[in-house]
Amino acid sequence: MKERVKSWVLLLLVIGSLVESYYLIYRLPGADSAVFSATTYIKTDNMGPELKVEDLLYPDQMIIHRGEDRHTLFYPGTTFYNLILGRLKGRSFESFERRSVSEFDWTRIRKEDPGIELTFGSGIPVQLLQRTMQMAPDSLFDDEIISRIWIYSVPNDSKAHAVFFSERGDIVYEAAKVDLTVQDIQQHVDFGSGWTPYTTADGSYYVPENDLPMVAAELPSGLYTIAQMQSSLFFDAGSTRYIQEKDGSEIYTDSKRSLQVDPKQNWISYSDPAALPAGEGSPAEDVLEAVDFVNKHGGWNGTYRLDRAEEGPEERRIVFQQYYGLLPYGSFPVLNESGLRYGSMELLLQQGSVAGYERSLMYADEDLAEKKAVKLRGGDVLRSRLAALAGSAGIRALQPGYLPSVQNDRIILTPVWKVTLKDGRVLALDL
Q1: Coiled coil located at which positions (predicted)?
Q2: For the chain, what is the domain count?
Q3: Neighbour-count burial of 55, counting CB atoms closer than 10 A to its CB (0-12 exposed, 13-18 middle, 19+ buried)
Q4: Would you say 171 and 101 are in contact if contact means Cβ atoms under 8 Å apart?
Q5: For residue 173, what are the domain limits?
Q6: Whether the Cβ atoms of residue 149 and residue 163 lie closer than 8 Å to each other
Q7: Which terminus of the chain is more solvent-facing, meaning fewer CB atoms within 10 Å of its CB: N or C?
Q8: Is residue 344 one of the residues assigned to a domain?
Q9: Which of the four pLDDT bands, split at 50, 70 and 90, describes residue 206?
Q10: Among candidate residues 51, 119, 40, the one with its CA nearest the CA of residue 288
Q11: pLDDT tier at 295, thresholds 50, 70, 90
């Protein structure tokens, strides 16, 4: 009997010891910092919601070709843009055929054939596009980057045509099987009836024949604190050292990573040269990694769109552009061409890992914005200004945007024309 009691007492002591050890290791204050792996990040204060990559992938403009050289444009956030894009996402595209861009008479198609043209700026990897559209996997072009999708119908042809443009410029991929009818396309094209007419010389960019209604806005602003960014970006924010540079910039470092703050621009640059390589990252994988990184470091303070994934000799720069707008006017990119660094998040990836991260510390309260209806000039006034602005460089793209500025504790968003020149420069035209 005594031996049985001793056995039970010994068992209880062992169990108690295990429970006490568990609480000592995992539940004491500060114990959490001891169990992070080299690739785990501390989640910062919530600076915005987490987003899926699908939330950041959408065309920067939708061009409606109505035949007889009539065109109109729908921009992100407008009713018909959302309606048409939502319907196209529900249709399937299969059996792609690789063809030369020169096999098509695009001038004739643009002028005569009803259709919908989606443009993606610098392009979107096919593997990401497949997350937003029902495109059957196809090894023929899975590694491509698509800059445009053109869906159209031809008179006396019962088949709908869908062509995907490679950002290289000389190759297109036509879907042999398209889950759209000629009637579907015509219905979408008819949504453009009665809207602002646009004209184009060669399809590179479109000019509205009437002034374009937009909204100017003044938004109360604030600043994320350095402490917030430190807690987000360093495993142990308490171990960082502070360094004051001669140019006024501030650097916080834990001897491996560094956080540089430009107090004049309220802009941060984070560097992690010791980021563990995860292998050779593809454009699609790098974009996914960049989105995951932002989600883990505070989230997204507004509406963003994947703007570009630039290939460098040893790294890839992923840029997310902030958008602002209201119904029914649309949503447009916030530019940083004024000298104020605001409106984008930029990440540098090396071998599939984030080695650099840049963003503004400023944020705006969109719910308390003061708004005013304004108009951007179009027609001959715009054409003459564009000719004088571009000179011999030539224009590659034109779209509305917002130029930010700061007055006291408010961010001012002024509607402008965003002019992208063929040499890559981006200019803001205030009309």
Answers
A1: none
A2: 1
A3: middle
A4: yes
A5: 53-209
A6: yes
A7: N
A8: no
A9: very high
A10: 51
A11: very high
Strand runs (DSSP E) across 51-132, as ranges? 61-65, 71-74, 92-100, 115-125
User: In a 10 Å sphere around its CB, with 0-12 CB exposed, 13-18 middle and 19+ buried, how is residue 387 labelled?
Assistant: exposed
**β 134-135/92-100 pair status:** parallel
CB 249 within 8 A of CB 262: yes
Judged by DSSP in three states, 118 sits in strand
In degrees, rounded to 5, the angle at the alpha carbon of residue 385 between the alpha carbons of residues 380 and 390 is 125
CA dihedral angle for residue 160, residue 166, residue 172, residue 175, rounded to 10 degrees: -40
pLDDT in tens, 360-410: 999 999 999 999 999 999 999 999 999 988 777 899 999 999 999 999 899
Which tokens go with 163?
A: 């062509």
78-130 residue pLDDT tens: 999 999 999 999 999 999 999 999 999 999 999 999 999 999 999 999 999 99
In a domain, 318, yes or no: no
Question: What's the pTM value of the predicted model, to 2 decimals?
Answer: 0.86
How far apart (Å, rounded) are the C-alpha atoms in residues 249 and 263? 6
Q: What residues does 399 pair with on adjacent strands?
A: 418
The CA distance from 123 to 73, in Å, is 19
Residue with structure tokens 């403009």? 61
The verdict on residue 152 lying in a domain is yes
Structure token pair of residue 285: 């994988």
Q: How far apart, in whole angstroms, are the C-alpha atoms of residue 390 and residue 233?
A: 42
State whether the Cα torsion 171-71-374-428 is positive or negative. Answer: positive
Quote the CA–CA distance of 69 and 428 in Å, as a whole number: 28
